[in-house]
Amino acid sequence: MSYDIEKPDEQWRAELNPAEYAVLRKAGTEPAFTGEYTDTKTKGVYSCRACGAELFTSTEKFESHCGWPSFYDPKESDAVELIADRSHGMVRTEVRCARCGSHLGHVFEGEGYATPTDQRYCINSVSLRLTPDEK
Ligand SMILES: [Zn+2]
Fold first, then answer.
1. Which of helix, strand or coil describes residue 81?
2. In contact, 102 and 48? CB cutoff 8 Å
3. In this predicted model, what pLDDT tens digit does every residue of 9-46 receive, in sequence order?
4. How many whole angstroms from 27 Cα to the centroid of ligand 1?
5. Per the database record, which ranges form the MsrB domain (predicted)?
C-alpha cells in the first residue's frame, strides 16, 4: 500500500504531539466525549491533522451522541480509504486518510440514524483540524 504522502515513523513522531501520534499513526482511539470536535457545530471543513487533506465538512456532521465527531459521508468519496479491521475481536471498517494513510476512526452502517446514508463515520477529533468557513 503506498500513499502520496509517506514519511518515516520518526518524522511523524516528531511532527505530531503524543496524542495525535497515538491515534493517527498507531490506530488508537481517544476517550469518548473528550475530543475537541465532538459537539462542534461550527461550519467549515475538517482536514487530516497529519497531512492537511480535506476529509469531511460540517454539512455531513450530525449528532450521534456516541462521544466522537460523526459524519454520514466524507467530503469526497476518495478522500478516505476503507479497510477491513479485525482487531479487538470485532469486524469493523477502519477509515484512513487516502493521502497519507493515517488512521481516522471507523465507519458503521445500518444503525438507524436519520441521515441520508445510514452510515456513521466515527472519527477521532485528534485526527482532524477544523477550518471554519469565512463569514
Ligand atoms: Zn492525511
1. strand
2. yes
3. 999 999 999 999 999 999 999 999 999 999 999 999 99
4. 13
5. 9-133
- Judge whether 97 and 80 are in contact, CB under 8 Å: yes
Domains of the chain, by residue range, sit at: 9-132
Cell of 13: 513522531
Q: How far is the CA of 116 from the centre of ligand 1 (A)?
A: 26
Catalytic residue among 51, 97, 100, 122: 122
How do residues 82-120 score in pLDDT, each as one tens digit?
999 999 899 999 999 999 999 999 999 999 999 999 999
Q: Which of 24, 19, 20, 18 lies closest to 5 in space, CA to CA? A: 24
Domain 9-132 matching CATH 2.170.150.20: the answer reads yes
The pLDDT of residue 1 is 64
Cα atoms in the Cβ-side hemisphere of radius 13 Å centred on 38: 11
- Going from the Cα of 121 to the center of ligand 1, the distance in angstroms, rounded, reads 16
120 SS3 class = strand
CA of 127 to the centre of ligand 1 (A): 9
**Ligand 1 midpoint to CA 81 (Å):** 10
